Amino acid sequence: MDYGRFVRTRQPLWDEFEQALGRARGGAALDHSALERLAFRYRQVLHDHALAAARYPETGSARRLWRLALEGTQWLQRDRGTGRVSVLRFFTRSFPRAMRRLGPHLSIATLLFVSSGLIGISLAIVQPAMGAAFLGPEAMAGLREGRLWTEALTTTIPPAVSSSAIATNNMGVAITAWAGGALAGLGALWVVLLNGFMLGVIVGATLPYAMTGRLLEFVAAHGPLELTLIVVSAAAGLAMGQALVAASDRPRRDVVREASRQSLVVLGGCLPWFVLLGLVEGLISPSPDVTPALKAVLGLTLWLLFGLLAWNPFLREE
Amino acid sequence: MSDPTPAIDRGQEETVLAMDNIPLALPVAGIGSRALAATLDYLLVAVLAATWIFGLLFAGSRLETRIGGGWTFAIALLGLFVLEYGYFAGVEAVTGGRSFGKWALALRVVSRDGGRASVGSLLLRNMVRLLDTLVGVWFMLLDPLSRRIGDRLAGTLVVHTRAQERDVVVGRIPAGWGAREVAVVESLLRRADGMDPARARVLASDLITCIERDDPSLLAGTPADADPLQRLRYAVSAS
Fold first, then answer.
1. CA distance B54 to chain A (A)
2. CA–CA separation, A147 vs B193, rounded Å?
3. Do B119 and B126 form a contact (C-beta atoms < 8 A)?
């Protein structure tokens, strides 16, 4: 077929495809037959693009067909999961499934967190200067006078401010722990080890002043879930990091993509809880009006609620 | 098989297999255009953040007396957090891969096969932006497809989107002419309006001489003293 004949016979089809695609991209509703016709024309345009690229390269028709093929591919070919996202389905199915797959990484992250916490406690007991380095001289002076630094939350900062500051800070830590997984898991490891160590040192620093009970009383309402969420976020980061560095039978591109998506689902399931925890930590934890027992019950309830959602016992495996 | 992409458009490319295993070259955006798009986006984020802060400062006193207890500050803090982490992910998820900066520079995020990226992929590539602001540029410099960490994790590419330009396509050519000759004619007709008129007429005259030599029947009915560009357009027009 010569070039002139190719253009004369096929151009009406390209025009039709371009117009139909323009209407569809402009938001026009397409019924089933119109969509089917558009897809059929797209296929014809792709074939014409292949012919023009091979036989008439650098011509106007090759340029136009390339552009049409690109636009058609971008509109008609969609990645999996391009449709609507259901929040209910996310929290009742996607999130628990992703959490179940995270089991080994969660065990490792928990082990690392607890180990670094124990090291932190031991070091703070042996080297009291360690506690001062983390808490600062003012907090240490307060401990000597029988005051926890957390009391400032109720005396100097309005609860609304402390709640939002705590929530945004914790979400930032969780996102950093998760995103740190993209550095071959090193960032996630750093966050989990540092947080465990810091918690250990702080607990260790309060021991000589017999203030540990009051500290635990302060964290009872928000601590269990907050620490769990940070460890879960870091575990999700570790899973992503493992996919980046560990050998597999499947192409690394596919493995990384799947692991990243699963870990993002885990992070997405954790983040909303930080808002709730920010309110608890800013309003309830420092409040002297709420009894320690009630704070402990609240902390346990929140932790159980998260656990129930995360492992959804009613969900059957696919 | 020859390269399917016209030379004039050739930049960074990724050839993928579209339907029926037909190769399709994706015009991948380089680090320069992506950095410029990101700069525009961060400028917008800065403007939005400043507007948010000043708006709350302006309304703060009235708001504070109504709801009290430092809630204005709390709302400001939450708004800034949402802007910092949510602007890119939210805007790209809603627009199908185009932030303000990408829209301004005609870029779009697509999946590795050139299709529309999923919401999950768009969220994923933006949630590691914090990390990419630190090391993403180095990853982009080392990668032939200019992918940052987020693109690698989400399996996405950023491509140029073509302007809706109407390519000149000739419908008749002299017998024996190949793609190269056709490309020369189409290139002149496409650029003629922006060229020096005298220069365009000289080039059109040269091409008419070639048509007269190879297939004079195409020029039948056109006066020899007519404008060379008009004669050329008539000669190659399908109608």
1. 18
2. 82
3. no
Q: Mutating which of B20, B113, B127 best tests the A interface, going by the most A Cβ atoms within 10 A?
A: B127
Q: How far apart (Å, rounded) are the C-alpha atoms in residues A123 and A204?
A: 8
- Restricting to B residues 68-127, those with a Cβ less than 8 Å away from any Cβ of A are 69-71, 73-75, 77-78, 81, 85, 108, 110-121, 123-124, 127
Closest alpha carbon within chain A to B97:
A74
Residue B36 has pLDDT above 80, yes or no: yes
Mark yes or no for CB contact B110/A74 under 8 Å: yes
- Is A60 within 8 Å of B172 when comparing Cβ atoms? no
- Evaluate whether A50 touches A101 at the Cβ level (below 8 Å): no
Cα B212 versus chain centre, distance:
40
The sign of the torsion formed by the CA atoms of A165, A166, A167, A170 equals positive
Nearest to B232 by CA among B175, B178, B173: B173
Which residues are registered as beta bridge partners of B116? A78, B110
C-alpha dihedral (A305, A306, A307, A310), degrees to nearest 10: 130
pLDDT at B81 over 80: yes
Domain definitions of chain B by residue range: 31-160, 179-236
- Condensed to tens digits (0 to 9), the pLDDT of residues B137-193 reads 888 888 888 899 899 888 899 999 876 566 777 778 887 788 888 888 888 888 888
> What percent of chain B stands above pLDDT 70?
87
Residue in A42, A79, A178 closest to B116 by CB = A79
CA–CA distance, A201 with A183 (Å, rounded to integer): 27
d(CA A263, CA A242): 11
A65-70 own/partner pairs: CB under 8 Å, 24+ apart: A65/A14, A66/B4, A66/B5, A66/B6, A66/B9, A66/B24, A66/B25, A67/B162, A67/B167, A68/A14, A68/A17, A68/A18, A68/A21, A69/A45, A69/B18, A69/B22, A69/B24, A70/B24, A70/B26, A70/B27, A70/B114, A70/B159, A70/B161, A70/B162
Q: What is the pLDDT of residue A193?
A: 94
Smallest Cβ–Cβ distance between A61 and the set B5, B120, B169 belongs to: B169
Q: How many whole angstroms separate alpha carbon B12 and alpha carbon B31?
A: 10
Chain A residue with minimal CA distance to B148?
Answer: A182
Walking along chain A (318 residues) 10 residues at a time, the average pLDDT comes out as 82 90 84 90 93 87 90 83 71 91 94 96 88 83 81 66 78 87 90 93 89 87 92 94 87 87 90 87 83 93 94 79
Please provide residue A11's backbone torsions phi and psi, each rounded to the nearest 5 degrees: -60, -40
Q: How many CB atoms lie within 10 A of CB A304?
A: 12
Find the CB nearest B120 among A43, A160, A261.
A261
| A134 contacts: CB under 8 Å, gap ≥ 6 | A198, A201, A202, A205
Residue B75 and residue A4: Cβ atoms within 8 Å?
no
Do residues A4 and B172 touch, judged by C-beta distance below 8 A? yes
> A132 in contact with B at a CB cutoff of 8 Å?
no
